Amino acid sequence: MVTVKIENLSYSYKDSATSVLHDISLSFSSGERVAIIGQNGTGKTTLTKHLNGILTPDTGRVLIDNVNVENKTTAEWASKVGYVFQNPNDQLFLDTVKKELVFGPSHLGIPKKEIQKRIRFVSELVGMQEELAEHPLNLTDSEKKFCAIGAVLAMDPNVVIMDEPTGGQDKSGKYRLAKILEYLKTQQKICIVVSHDMRFVTENFDRIVVMANGHILLDGAPKEVFSNPQVLKEAFVTPPPITDLAQKLGWETTILSISEFIEELKKRVQ
Ligand SMILES: Nc1ncnc2c1ncn2[C@@H]1O[C@H](COP(=O)(O)OP(=O)(O)OP(=O)(O)O)[C@@H](O)[C@H]1O
Questions:
Q1: How far, in Å, is the centroid of ligand 1 from the Cα of 54?
Q2: Where is the ABC transporter domain (predicted)?
Q3: Pocket of ligand 1, candidates 21, 44, 49, 210: which has the most ligand atoms within 8 Å of its Cβ, to mutate?
């Protein structure tokens, strides 16, 4: 079990006159898959960087299992809070995929045998078992993302944060990501993902947090969130096309998938 609590967090970058995050309060509990959405520059990445101490709040605090994140360094939080950067080039720095996967757990003092076991499992989970000897620079952008995810999962953190993992992923990449999210849920991890891919978000998350201008506008289950087209418009969030179509047809039921659309259509023509 793990808990994350963000209490009245406000933040502005030192070189900026304007505040990025305004009095944000949120909490997450074990097994939750949460997507944070909202237009570019609204503070999603800035918010997630507070969860392992990359950034420190101006006011307010973040508690992981009731411990203030500020009380430890980012490196000390690594075993508990895994952070996958938006750009894998900001994260990968070794000359083989295997070394990237081994680096985290070996620095945590995990015994060699356990590390080997983890690498076998994680490399399969992220689809990198054939690329372990490759230099990360030789990987495709999609593979680099999975390598970066694998490097974080190899530390077995209870909180996993991924910034834009769907960026540059094709259908099979998104399918693999969905499988990873499913696995993390079975392990009761908290998984917080920043994404602009509304279809991926509606299909794979239990909860969606909508941000605009450093504020939380909506926070709830996908159906609840996407039943607020006016508020989403304010956040410059475009619902998945199928949801949009149903709303334009004037249906009160919030539709999130093609199968739901067909079911609703059948009811209406009967
Ligand atoms: N290191 C920085 N120094 C100064 N300002 C920054 C820095 N990083 C981000 N910002 C600014 O803070 C605001 C929020 O940025 P942030 O990256 O958190 O938004 P975001 O919602 O994650 O955007 P995106 O969806 O494009 O990733 C933006 O105005 C951005 O220009």
A1: 14
A2: 4-238
A3: 44
Give the closest residue (by CA) to ligand 1 atom 28: 41
Q: Which positions of the chain have pLDDT values less than 50?
A: none
Residue type, 37: I
pLDDT at 15: 81
Query: Burial of 41 by CB count in 10 Å (0-12 exposed, 13-18 middle, 19+ buried)?
Result: exposed
Is the CB of residue 204 less than 8 Å from the CB of residue 174? no
Ligand 1 atom with least separation from CA of 42: 21
Domains in the chain, please, with CATH? Answer: 3-237 (3.40.50.300), 240-270 (no CATH)
